């Protein structure tokens, strides 16, 4: 997996079983995993598969530019389909943490810390840790790769893409303070209390200082030991998440907010959807040529 990720594909969509449709009443589902859910705005974002391919293509463009300038970029230990699949798996895992820890297997083993597959094959490298000349080359070449991305039709217009990402972030934030979500958090908190964990919300549980930067990709977090206490709290959280239907309620509320914004911004979002479909075709074409 790449060490330095360009920000261009940070907002991408995932597949799912329950799709909230704009303009339609939103029933509250009872999912068994986040993989079953697909928020309305994801229709207007690049899907995980093509976003993963694009990330690899962009990193390839950037690194080729860096080498042309006489430097050796931080190397990718995997390339091609394996690297793209790594991004997809990473983003799918992050989806499981959208509302709370919800993946039983990883919670019981890794607690609130990120599983090894999310970390790549080496600790993440920050631009600040590189020499100044290499850092400048990486920055310049990253900007050049982003320009080539636009020139090759691999992404929609920036303002349209920003609109969808901004709406998604805003609607998530608004939904988290909605009375219905706060209500399901209270039920979750009661469930956790019965198990001996006095947390008010899932965020409180994940940010417990005893877990030592859990959920982050800092060197300290990657080295941290997952204690039995952390693993126990995370496993209890997952049980309470499904017992109280935190995922279903949170999804239904967020979907309502997104549906309203889709109706308000229908023309711009329809254009974005068309652009993303065109970008996906261009990504596939370039991917096939580079393989």
Structure in a nutshell:
58% of the residues lie in helices and 1% in strands. By secondary structure, the protein is mainly alpha-helical.
What are the key terms here?
291 residues, mainly alpha, two-stranded parallel sheet, 11 helices, globular
What does it look like?
The two termini are 17 Å apart. Helix 1 (48-68) packs across helix 4 (132-151) and helix 3 packs antiparallel against helix 9. Residues 1-11 have low confidence and may be disordered. With 291 residues, this protein is mainly α. 38% of the residues are buried. It contains eleven helices and two strands. 58% of the residues lie in helices and 1% in strands. The chain has helices spanning 48-68, 80-95, 104-110, 132-151, 158-176, 179-194, 202-206, 219-223, 228-244, 246-264, 266-290, and strands spanning 18-19, 37-38. A two-stranded parallel ribbon has the order 1-2.
User: What series of H and E elements makes up the topology?
Assistant: EEHHHHHHHHHHH
Assembly type: single chain
Helix proportion? 55-70%
Extract low-pLDDT stretches.
Answer: 1-11
Explain the layout of strands and helices.
Blueprint: E1 18-19, E2 37-38, H1 48-68, H2 80-95, H3 104-110, H4 132-151, H5 158-176, H6 179-194, H7 202-206, H8 219-223, H9 228-244, H10 246-264, H11 266-290
Parallel strand pairs: 1-2
Helix pairs in contact: 1-2, 1-4, 1-11, 3-9, 5-10, 5-11, 6-9, 6-10
């Amino acid at each position: 997996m790449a060490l330095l990720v360009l920000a261009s594909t940070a907002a991408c969509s995932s597949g799912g079983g329950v799709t909230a449709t704009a303009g339609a009443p939103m029933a509250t589902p009872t999912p068994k995993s986040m993989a079953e859910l697909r928020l309305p705005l994801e229709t207007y974002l690049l899907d995980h598969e093509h976003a993963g391919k694009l990330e690899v293509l962009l990193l390839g463009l950037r690194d080729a530019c860096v080498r042309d300038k006489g430097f050796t970029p931080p190397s990718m230990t995997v390339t091609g389909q394996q690297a793209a699949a790594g991004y997809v798996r990473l983003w799918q895992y992050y989806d499981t943490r959208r509302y709370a820890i919800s993946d039983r297997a990883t919670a019981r083993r890794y607690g609130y810390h990120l599983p090894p597959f999310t970390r790549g094959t080496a600790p993440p490298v920050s631009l600040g840790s590189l020499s100044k000349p290499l850092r400048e080359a990486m920055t310049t070449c990253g900007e050049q790769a982003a320009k080539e991305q636009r020139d090759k039709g691999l992404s929609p217009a920036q303002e349209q893409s920003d609109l969808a990402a901004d709406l998604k972030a805003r609607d998530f934030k608004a939904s988290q303070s909605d009375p219905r979500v706060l209500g399901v958090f209270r039920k979750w908190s009661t469930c956790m209390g019965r198990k001996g964990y006095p947390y008010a919300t899932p965020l409180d549980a994940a940010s417990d200082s005893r877990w030592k930067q859990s959920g982050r990709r800092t060197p300290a977090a990657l080295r941290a030991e997952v204690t039995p206490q952390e693993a126990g709290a995370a496993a209890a959280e997952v049980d309470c998440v499904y017992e109280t239907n935190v995922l279903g309620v949170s999804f239904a509320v967020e979907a309502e907010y997104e549906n309203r914004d889709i109706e308000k911004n229908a023309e711009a979002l329809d254009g974005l959807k068309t652009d993303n479909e065109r970008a996906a075709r261009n990504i596939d074409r370039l991917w096939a040529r580079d393989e």
